[in-house]
Amino acid sequence: xKNNNQKRQVLLVDDDKHLLDSMGGWLVEQGYQVSLATxxxxxxxxxxxxxxxxxxxxxxxGGEDGMDLLRECKSHHPNVVPLLMTGYATVDTGVxxxxxxxxxxxxxxxxxxxxxxxxxxxxxxxxVIEENEQLKTQLDQRFGRDNIIGNxxxxxxxxxxxxxxxxxxxxxxxxxxxxxxxxxxxxxxxxRSNRRKAPFVEVACGALPENLLESELFGxxxxxxxxxxxxxxxxxxxxxxGTIFLDEIGTASASLQVKLLRVLQELEFEQVGGxxxxxxxxxxxxxxxxxxSQAVAEGRFRExxxxxxxxxxxxxxxxxxxxxxxPMLAQHFLTKVCEEENKQIEGFDPNAMQAMQDxxxxxxxxxxxxxxxxxxxxxxxxxxxxxxxxxxxxxCSSTTLTIPTAGKRQTLKEALEGPERQIILQCxxxxxxxRNATAEQLSVNRTTLYKKMxxxxxxxxxTAAVQGW
Length: 469
Known about the structure:
The structure is a single chain. By secondary structure, this protein is of the alpha/beta class. The protein has 4 domains: 9-136, Rossmann fold; 144-317, Rossmann fold; 322-402, Helicase, Ruva Protein, domain 3, CATH 1.10.8.60; 407-469, Arc Repressor Mutant, subunit A (Orthogonal Bundle), CATH 1.10.10. The chain has helices spanning 17-29, 40-49, 66-76, 91-100, 112-143, 153-165, 182-191, 210-218, 235-238, 254-266, 292-297, 303-309, 326-341, 350-358, 364-378, 391-394, 411-430, 435-442, 446-455, 461-467; strands spanning 9-13, 33-37, 54-58, 60-61, 64-65, 81-86, 104-107, 172-175, 200-204, 219-220, 232-233, 243-247, 268-270, 277-279, 283-288, 312-315, 347-348, 383-384. The protein is flat, with a radius of gyration of 30 Å. Mean pLDDT is 84; it is low at 1-5 and 400-410.
């Protein structure tokens, strides 16, 4: 059998020196790097000195217990996948080994192919764990509070509320116009909570008809309706231990509202067509762009459900209510699209930026993102101008396009320095002049930031203060 995990580091632990040398030499021939140890002390020394992918530990190490070494390995070297071997295996021994954290318990005498198969399986599991950790890190970076852009006082208040409620079990209602980032806030709450390792399940309530939505949320049993050929697990069950996000909750039907009320109060439900009651530990976050109090007054939304979902309300401001955030948001989206499309565009000229700040943005941040993406794809750079923006945005602007005369060729450059300096300076101050944090917030690399700081006279906070910036 050919091994596909070349140059992986394996630690072999056995008090039989002859067996160690024989097995170690054979594993080296298979492409592994091998360390040998005849005792727990020697094994821990090896683990502390270098990284190992796998550790194959004998259950009996002379007068020592290999189970103790296994526990030590799991506690202080969690990235190492441990396997046990023994010539005295029993069912109880196997159960104890697995409970203690062993990936496998192998019986002596060991067969070559069995060793390679066990190692391949262990390494595959390790790779899955590493990939999951990477994905979780990416989620933290994408949906963590630090990646939700906004210096407006309303957004800062929202950020503070996210921090304060993240670890509570309270139901959260996020309100705001379409495109303000309600889903992003919901994910941020989950990622900052102690449920972050459990599932985050999102359901767009307005995208499904009533009969399918109920099945989607609670699941169904086979034969409960036409097309239900098998049992289905619902989203509430999938989110057990984690968070379920119900978007567009204002569209829920009267019958569904009754069932939601019960779930929110008792955290239990039955599947469509089923009689078994399921109980879940699921944190519920809801969102709507409707005025639910008005819906209650009109009889479209249950009053008792309204009070149950409105425990904690996060109201997101529209983009036209926080126009000061537009330059930072636009630059963030521009940088992101440029990286994805390999475009070389530095930013927006003053007229284009003023036009965007004058516009009302009925589609809010989502619309801004789409407009910036369009401008980057169509623009020739290095700066995006009014010509790169749609007519419905430029027509609302108080700015008219001007072409500098021959005697004023530096006007555009000088005009651009002011807004750019202000944005960088504001971020530097927010991060206590930490350049790495500022570069990350602005989505630029550190070298680019350092060059811009030098060009704009922002190398020293004292200098900036003296200049009155």
